[in-house]
Design brief:
By secondary structure, the chain is an alpha+beta fold. The protein has 42 helices and 46 strands. It has 7 domains: about 130 residues, no CATH class; about 110 residues, no CATH class; about 70 residues; about 120 residues, Calcium-transporting ATPase, cytoplasmic transduction domain A; about 350 residues, Calcium-transporting ATPase, transmembrane domain, CATH 1.20.1110.10; about 190 residues, HAD superfamily/HAD-like (Rossmann fold); about 200 residues, 3-Layer(aba) Sandwich (Calcium-transporting ATPase, cytoplasmic domain N). Helix 34 runs parallel beside helix 36 and helix 36 packs antiparallel against helix 37. The two termini are about 80 Å apart.
Amino acid sequence: MQSRLTTRLLCIVLGVSLPFVVQATPAWNEVNGYDVHGNRCLLPTYNQYPCARICARNIADCPAPVRPSCPPGQTWCVDGSCQESCPSDLTSKCACTFEDPLVGDLYPCKEGQRVNIERFLATNLTDQTAEACANDLNIPVASVEEWSNNPTSLMWNTCPKPSKPLTFTEPAFIALYTFYGSLVAMLVGWTLYKRAFEKYNMSKFNKIARQQQMERVEVIDEKKDAGSSGSNEKKPEVAGQSGDKESIKASSAESLEPEEQMVIKAYKRDFLGMFCFGLYIIQTIGNIAFMIMLTWDYYQDYILFEGNQLVQSSTFIGMWYIFFFWFAGLSIFKNRLMNFFRIKCTYAEANYVQIEKHEPPTIFLQDRSDKLTDIVRWLEQLGRRTFGLDVVVTTSAMRSTRSGARYFVYQCTRYVYHPETQIFTPHEFVLGETNAELAEQKNGLTAEEAHKREELVGPNFINVYVPNVPMAVLREFSSFFYTYQFTALWLFYYFAYWEVGVADTAVILLSAFVKVFVRLRSERRIKKMAEFTDKINILRDGTFQEMSTSDLVPGDVFEVDDGKVVPCDGIVLSGNIVVDESSLTGEPLPIRKFPLRTDDNTPYDRMGSSKISTIFCGTTVSQAQPTEQGGRVTALATQTGTGTDKGELVKKILFPSPVSFIFNEQIKITILILLCCGVICLGLAIWLYATGTSAWLYAMFAIAQLISPLLPAALVIGQSVSAGRLRSKNIFCVDLPRILMAGKVQLFCFDKTGTLTREGLDFYGAQPVADLHNVVEARTNKGKTGAPTFDVHVDTVDKVPRLMQIGLATCHAVTTLNGQFIGNPVDIEMFRSSGWKLEESGDEVVDILSPPSTASINAPVHVLKRFEFVHARMSMSVAILDTHTQKVHIFVKGAYEKIKDLSNSSSIPTDYDKTTADLAREGCYVLALAHREIDLEQIGGLEAFRNWTRDQMEEEIHFMGLIIFKNQLKDDTTENIAELKNGATRTIMITGDTALTGVFIARQCGMALPNSRILLGDLDKATNRLVWEDVDDPETFSDVNVDDYLLNKEHTPVELAVTGKAFQWLVDNDLIRKYLLDIRIFARMTPTGKVQCVQLHMERGITAMTGDGGNDCGALRAAHVGIAMSDAEASIVSPFSTSVRSVRSCVELLLQGRAALATSITGYKYLIMYGQVMMMMKIFTFYFSVTMSQYIWIAIDVFITVFLTWAVTQSKAADRLNEERPTARLLGWQTMSSCLGLVAINWMFLSGIFKFLYSQDWFRCNEFDSNAADLSKWWLLADNYEGETLALVTLFMFINNAAVFSFGHKFRQPIYKNYPLIFLWALYLAIVSYWMLGDTNRFGCLFRINCGTKEVLAQFNYPIPSTYIEQYNTPQGHNIMPWEYRWKLWGLCMGNVVACLVYERIFVLGPVREFFAKRYPLRRLKITR
């Protein structure tokens, strides 16, 4: 009694408190009670029941039919074998493991006796078996005893249930007590020690803080008394040094960006904590070891627990819970774990800091909210806040500089502690505010000064941590879902289901290792890009020294060499540099850079007017030319490490902001629903099926199968397949979840040049002022000229007046390198078209250019002075000496609007605006050229002229003519824009080009609506209002009310276009959202404006952006879906990139995105239906106390589920975009109606089939009686008609679900083109049909279908297959169904298949859906395509 009480108490302690009164038979019908006619069933005959062996003191005592015999010269031994002599150490076959040793020798008689037990009664199995077997041997029943260790003569070799009471002092329990005792003692002891120590540290810190506060007050009083005598002393430029910490220059906490607001906690090492952490690691391994031990013991008949199954399984359950929560806690709190074993302290004592940063994920496609999603998200957030999981936790080592300043490195950036603000911030150096101040810093730094700066900002090296393979694997498996997966699989290993456990483990490990490989490859690529070092000459202590690029700090002066990669962001101080910026901007041609001027007091703007003097980290120096003989080309380092543009790029790649998709959000709800279904199964298992631990194990099996461990792999496999298909089309993806977003794109923004149109501009000719030569002569002689007019358009340079030819040939910054033109692409095209040649220049001139050999005048021209093109001024200028006339000419070239403002108004033709507008409407890129002739004698000679400023050169100029380029559409742009629009996608142009050019291209490619009126909005500076005009008739409709036109846009199509200034005015006046979806063209947009424009569209719907790099990088990163038409490193900021610079790539992205989304939903629905069919099957198995054979389970969980999950992803994308997009909502009406409808159909068919089964004469009175079976041996519960019927019917369901959800519909190709799926579906259906319809055969017997015990098959004259068949555990001894019933059952199953297919195709996807969609339309974004 005491032992039983102890056992029950142990089970309660281990978490098992299940009812002990359980009904293990059907609750609403009596098993084998009545036949179909209402007659009481007779007791059955148990066919060919195997008799237990008889043991005897002497072989001669064995009954004759079972008396063993051996060949001559051999003896029958106690172990049941024939040997020449029997060793004394043999173990008798008659011994029982958990009973006392046998007294004397006992010999086993022969086995293999079988008998038919008439009028079999399961509750009297032992007595009936003994009587039948004894009668068959013609011996009295009483002559054979029950098993004992010392029988008198004969006994049955049937071991009794272990009766030896557990003392709970067995070795297994001692090990458990020791292990868990040490675990609890360690955790409790360390926690108490840690809290006490931290409390002591806090009190000590408060005491010191009060003393420092008092000292600070005294110091302030002393400074007041001292007055301002030291106020004029110059503070050190670099602070944070010993004795002067208060002079550290740093940003205040308020100046930090919101994402930089973080909580920093300090910790120090502790010897006891290190010991406890080591013990924790050992205990973690110990948890695994104990689970292995218990699993091994299960297969050894509970030998460690003296054969006590209840206590052993109860112990396993308790340890399973501990295992789950232990590893779940390790997974969830892994980033805090190390600091748990450290002591919290002050910053001064700290060895480590814990950084906590709040980074809530951005949830895409959250346009419609529902209460269930909101509740689940609120519960999730509450749980995260409760356990501190709402922040991203990172631990970093705390270090000190030589001067004692404390710092740590976080996300590759050094954070320095500033005592006056008591915060950690990245240190910043202000080197100068104006161009002149920066240009004067040519003397470099001292070694001491450089070392001090390096301590504050760190080395110029981004150390990218890439773990080795073991650590990468450990990082991957630290995810929480792996804990769930392996905890669930441990049940499979324990409960005699190890074959499926091995298969699922292999799939999970394979997918995990693939993910590890892909991630490591990506990280190594980033590491290769980020970790760059080289040798470089740095000016230190007044001399250039060869050092590593990692030694550079802000303020250093370094030498720039040909062919080198720029190691940091810097400013050119001397020499001319040509750099290839394609690695960052995507621009195809190298760019010239010029030194800052010491007389330029304008503010330094690195991305604006000063960009022509700024070099960027990661770009390649194509050419570096000193301006003085023997001089050096030098630059001033301004930003290093992550402070550079490239450093920021790497940082964003390494530490991206978390994002989530509504698809992922609703998976959480789905898992909760499935978990609730699992709880229902738990209740049913307790009520209907089994008692004690068996009920728990069956219920956990049900939960593990409802929430398949393969679910995560199945949900991303569609994305992986789509990424592979995109890769085959040269579209590369670095963020797989974005593929799903591509499937929901509603708005697609396009850059124009290089995206919609060809890469470069073609020279389209010029349109000079009429009679240009005479007009210029008249102006030079101060004569009168008439009103200027435009001459005819000429298409080649040789037809242009010579003076304008000189302007076209010289007004640029083109140079050559290794025979290649370098400079602005437009300038290169203009210069190439001129036919002139660049000659070697001397020291006195910038460039020498000579005309083509076909020119009538072959005299060269010398470029005396040049001011480069500046975006802020929108112009450039050159001064040249014409050696033919010895005259000096100034040419100013720029945007036609800007040249008009700069030129003398009398030189502007009256139809200037109309001509330029007409050219722009034709898609032309128009520049203007102005001219001025100067007399060197009047201005003081050439030396005086060299001192002229840019403003002096660009004044008093006269318009000369227009230079015209044309940007041609790519050949396939029009058709692909049309396909995007046919796919319900609004296309928008965001360009830096002029509005009229944008309008022309939009019309030409079909982006703008056909025959639509286009209104252009521009800002009127005089009135500070937006003026709208008709681009086709601006004179008649010069200032119209745009709202009136938009009211009638349904009848008369209207499109809007705005300039960059108009866009900004609309933003500032909060009107942009009103017109946003009516604006087709955004022109003259800056990079910042592009980002803002994309973000505004993102408010209205899923937005994609495409561009060719450069100014598009910000917008590409900001968009939901960005595709960079560039193979440069800058493309890494975009989720997608392609080297195929065609709009077709955008179409392919949407096609594959929609297919991937539809496929992911299909995979989700398939596994959900797997869980629902499994739940339905579990309910039937619990009710009838049956199951399916082991190999049926393996077929379902390995071959059917795994292979069909893969096969459904093989559906290819549709050939064309459809006007609808696939749903992304797992809980939407379409997904729910599909799943719930199939659940209902399957329930109806399965219930009907069982009703049909119970109407069969041959079945009634042959029902399965679970009283005759051990329910803990689940694999013995399938040898009956109920289990066989259930297996066959559900197999059809498992197979058919894959086909039901794989109709191509509108986003994928038809199902018959998914050859792997069709093959597997047909193959599996054929196999199951063969099992069902075929007579007894080897294949069917392997799966226990239409088969039986061989002796029973022989008794009833059934075919006997030549394979091993384990003994059937039912009285009938077989489960062979009548031939007629099999065909009827097959017809019902095929009817189920057809009904599901028809329901999905007609109701969910077909005309019924269309009817309800029209009657009850969803709220969608209304857009004009």
